[in-house]
Write a structure and sequence with these properties.
The protein is mainly alpha-helical and 280 residues long. The chain contains 13 helices and no strands. It has a domain at 70-239: MetI-like fold. Helix 7 packs antiparallel against helix 10. It is globular. It is found in: Cell membrane. Keywords: Cell membrane, Membrane, Transmembrane, Transmembrane helix, Transport.
């Protein structure tokens, strides 16, 4: 095979890859487009046959109905505060635990790590009742503290941090810091944290989006409309005889926008952090 044929074959392979990625991107974006279309239509368009795929002109009107039914911006702010606090605490706890599991030796370390991983296979619905009674006995029902405390310990975060720190932080660097008289926490703060920024960005995206989209636990704990997160507030829109799908999907559409913006911001940080990490 000469150079021209090899180059042509490479170009064809590259073309197929781009076509596949383009198709996958369109399929991934279609649910968001359909949500936008339904948010601009009347409720009758939700069940129309053939389905409506072109936007209407009722986006603002449907959103005005949402504002009349719920405190949309208050619930949005509550969700943002909740997700931000949970994300920061999870990043701190998971990175500390990952650092300990990756770089320290203590009795039953592997057993404890495997036990943490095993909790990931337990369905969250299975622990709903005992967790509810624990929160109720602690006097944290209908509070944001009662909602967020359940998310602080994240087995996936501990696993990701343990793997990333184990591969990215050299043992020699830690030993040199100890010889210089650094405490374990100072090593974590001054050496480990700058190195694991890519993992921070990745885990931050995962935790923030997961807590933002979580509904069952928030719905179980929160009762006062003043404490509603955006998921619970949007669910309350269905407490009517005639469900207005255009109104509901309009609220869902606008509630998704902050999440997409935050995701894009963290995604840029993730890419830049990888570049910095590779240079270091």
């Amino acid at each position: 095979m000469n150079q021209a044929e090899s180059k042509r074959k490479f170009s064809m392979n590259k073309l197929f890859v781009y076509l596949f990625l383009s198709l996958a991107s369109l399929l991934s974006l279609f649910p968001f487009y359909w949500m936008f279309v339904m948010a601009t239509q009347t409720s009758s368009a939700y069940n129309s046959i053939p389905p409506t795929i072109t936007p209407g002109n009722l986006l603002v009107e449907n959103f005005q109905k949402v504002l009349l039914q719920i405190d949309f911006f208050g619930a949005l702010w509550t969700s943002f505060v909740l997700c931000s606090i949970v994300t920061l605490v999870v990043l701190f706890i998971s990175s500390l635990a990952g650092f300990a599991f990756a770089k320290f030796y203590f009795p039953a370390k592997n057993f404890l790590f495997i036990t943490i991983l095993l909790t990931m296979i337990i369905p969250p619905q299975l622990g709903l009742i005992p967790q509810y009674f624990l929160i109720a006995n602690a006097g944290l029902l209908d509070t944001l503290a009662g909602v967020m405390i359940l998310f602080f310990l994240n087995p996936l975060g501990i696993f990701l941090m343990r793997q990333y720190i184990g591969d990215s932080v050299p043992d020699e660097l830690i030993e040199a810091a100890k010889l210089d008289g650094c405490s374990n926490f100072k090593i974590y703060r001054s050496i480990v944290l700058p190195i694991i920024l890519p993992a921070f960005a990745t885990l931050g995206i995962i935790v923030f989006t997961a807590v933002w989209g979580e509904f069952l636990w928030q719905f179980t704990i929160l009762r006062d409309p003043d404490n509603y997160t955006i998921q619970v507030a949007l669910a309350s829109l269905r407490n009517t005889v005639n469900v207005d799908f255009g109104m509901i999907l309009s609220g869902v559409f606008w509630a998704t926008m902050p999440l997409i913006i935050i995701f894009l911001l963290f995604n840029r940080l993730f890419i830049s952090s990888i570049a910095e990490g590779s240079v270091k």
